[in-house]
Specification:
- By secondary structure, the protein is of the alpha+beta class.
- The chain folds into three domains: 39 residues; 164 residues, no CATH class; 170 residues, Tetratricopeptide repeat domain (Serine Threonine Protein Phosphatase 5, Tetratricopeptide repeat).
- The protein is built from twelve helices and twelve strands.
- Strands 1-2-5-8-9-10 form a six-stranded antiparallel beta sheet, with no helix packed on it.
- Helix 6 packs antiparallel against helix 7, helix 8 packs antiparallel against helix 9 and helix 11 packs antiparallel against helix 12.
- The longest helix has 27 residues.
- The protein is elongated.
Amino acid sequence: MVTCTDLVQNKILAYPYISRTFMKNFRLLFALVFISNVVFAQLDVPPVAGNPRATVTEEVGITSISIKYSRPDVNKREGKIWGDGNLVPNGFTTNSFITNKNTSPWRAGANEITAITFEHDVKVEGQPLKAGTYGLFIAMAPDNATLIFSTQAEAWGSFYYEEKFDVLRVNVKPVALDKSVEYLKYEFIDHKDKSCVIALQWEKLSIPFKVEVDTDNIVLARLREQLVSQKGFNSTNLIQAAQFCVTRGINLDEALVWSNRAITGNQGQRSYVSLRNLASVYEKMNRTAQADSVMNEALSLATAVQYTAYGRILISQKKADKAMEVFTASQKKFGDVFGVNSGLASGYSAKGDFANALKYAGKAVAQAPNENTRKQIEAQIAKLKEGKDIN
């Protein structure tokens, strides 16, 4: 096998004078290439121009959203950041290394590309965007900003930007800030259960955009995966999954299946907790007779504290009479104990009978299991003396 070294040596033998010059230059070139490779492979230097690198991450539901960017500072350039003739001019005015013209948008930060990652599919300003990592660019205008999400997620800045890689463009309204932000930053400023607002903030301008996530279906898909794994053999996990559906008012047929598995399946448990969960699914499905039947069985296994907790749920549902039935049944079963008396205080208060509520609250405060609970009952007594419902 003939190698590059063999060829070089053959060349040297054929031309002795040229060989010395060639070999000298060859060795010098080899040394430079080697040193260059070592430098680029090993150096870890501060960011260009002192623009610190940053990553901000938050979750919406169970969906992680992450932004990786560099943070330029104002550096005494107030009033010279935004708009034509300034640091971030309007439109597509960054120099393109492809066209050698000012045809690229702003990189939405400094140095390397600003990259935004969505763990699941989302909507940005109402427009669908698939899960993944995107380069984020911005084209400014006097009264709006065009956000561009591109599959170019690893380029340096926007010098190699090409429109053909765009997957989404949305227009948003910039917002003036009262206080100047020295270093550019991205903030999650309005976090909700199924959405958030992310804002680029720099100098005295904020560029916000809304991101929505289909939290319910994402969570359901994840629950289904988990409940056919080893986690599905745990009754607590099955109950938790069912209660997610009850709370959201979704997927109730499957919640019913999970609830029954928590009672009768492998490692299922027939307990107050599992039966109460099943009853709550029936209640949500408006299957009242079945809910009442299951709840009666659940109460046969309940402690005094669990009786009280259920009675208070009924009060929150504006079912004060039924709550009193539960509290009275608890009294017959358990007698003069803290759980019974604190429940009766709540029940009589819900019916506006503050005299009897005070009577049982007085008993409960003397039976309080710890100092924090005693203080809570004392606060309830104070409210009852003012004729105020403690529920």
